[in-house]
Fold this sequence. Notes:
CATH superfamily: Ribonuclease H-like superfamily/Ribonuclease H
Number of domains: 1
Amino acid sequence: MAAMSVKGPPVTNNEEAEALACRKALEFSIDAGFLELIIEGDNANVMRAVCSPLPNHSLLGNIIEDVKCFLTGLQYVSVKCISRERNKVAHVLARHARNIFSDMYGWKTLHLCIMTF
């Protein structure tokens, strides 16, 4: 299992934040060597777009398509939309990221990496 707190660029809305966080988490997970992932996010629109086989032509389309490209190289992927109440770890990490000056990563070896946003 791995966790990270990363200060991202300024965003205009929750969907942009969720899409960028998903892409960053996938980059990190793949670089760390994980091949099986469960992706959980609380923005239904972003999670639906990531799961869709259709090209995404929205303003976030390039980010969503990047995420889809990352997913193709994995052995197992599950993408779920979960409520914010069930996503407390992600919100704690997000609040923590507001106060950091550099990226922070934590590691614990497990067979499956669970990333929450």
